[in-house]
Amino acid sequence: MNRNFRLKFLLLIFFLTGFIQLSNAQSAKQDFNRIRTFDVQHYLIRTSFDRQNRTIFGDTTVSLKPLKNGFNVVELDAENLKFESVKLAPDGKDLQFQTNDEKVIITLDKDYAPQDLIKIRLKYSAKPKKGVYFVNALRNGATVLHDAQILTQGEPEESRCWFPSYDFPDDKATTEQFLTVEAGENVISNGELIETLENADGTKTFHFKMNIPHSVYLTSFVVGKYIKFDDSYKNIPLSVYLYPGREYLYKQVFGNTKEMMRIYEELTGIAFPFNKYDQTIVADFDLGGMENITATTFSDRDIFFSEQNKFVVEDIVSHELAHSWFGNLVTCRNWAELWLNEGFATFMEAAYREKMYGRSDYLRKIQDDVREYFDGEAKMNRKHGLLNKLARPDDSIFDAVTYQKGSAVVHTLRETVGDRVFWKAINIYL
Prior knowledge:
By secondary structure, the chain is an alpha+beta fold. The protein has nine helices and 21 strands. The protein has a seven-stranded mixed sheet with strand order 4-7-2-1-12-15-14, with no helix packed on it. A five-stranded mixed sheet has the order 17-18-19-21-20. Helix 3 (257-268) crosses helix 5 (310-322), helix 3 crosses helix 6 and helix 8 (401-417) crosses helix 9 (419-429). The chain is globular, with a radius of gyration of 22 Å. The two termini are 27 Å apart.
């Protein structure tokens, strides 16, 4: 078998594995995908806050194109949003709509076709039980440990709790956000900060624009008072946002970010795919980290753990960065296939370690993943394979099968086909 044919054959096996898994699921009459009738092009989201009452006020324009002729009804995910108005933009024509606890169903003024761009402007308010989180300031006597914060968490399907959207990973759109906050506060969000506006009432509005389409669950913001550290990798701005008094964490935790980027670019053959990368710590955050596009959010509790175990925290930082390639650039189509995001990002923790600390450290990390997988699966009430036929849009999908087993299986594939074929396949996959 000549070398070129062998490479193509192994690449074919690599991709057919995923296809066969999905085909088996389909043959069992299980479909984890979602029927789409339109393609969202852009979300323009304006958000302000009533902190005392933990209320958000939103004004979102959804720009979309129908997928078929005769399109006259739009269903958007909107969990417990209270709508003030729904209009066509830019002419302001009122549209009829109905709501329930989960959706807003809009009747358009006429039939539309795939070549039409429809813009719908929705004004609303909400007291979110999830999706947006209001965090109180924390003090130790007269010392402020952290100021009040407002933050989002979108994965798997919580973005619908703060703006109307198609809240499923198989549709990607660009986003633009205007966030109005109190003077003296920082805002971290997706993409480029276009401008900061001073308002007559003393508030400030931050305008962000994310020009690369992405799934809705990656849309985010963090509001709070931070010390900002700036750096760059090549021409990519890198920023870290820490609490006053925690400045030492910058080098201790985030000092190797540029090396991680360099290594991931070298291994995948794909340059960092976005125009900036922010990293921010927040309080009362149940996840270790969340790979919001260009603006990763970390639990301060987990980052503070670096004082006890630097390498565990380094894994968290490298994992979230790896999602820029595995998850944000290339995204699972549905939640049953989440391992394609999380298993690969977990494996990339080990791949980074191999480049930084050597083969033995890589193998130690893979062995840790295997142990965590077996320990985690032993405690699971509902067992599943990498293709999670039990997947539902809640925290149950974030388990040891999706993360650690996924990593171990990717490692096994690498060891079976060899480095040259494996990383070539990864490059084609991305």
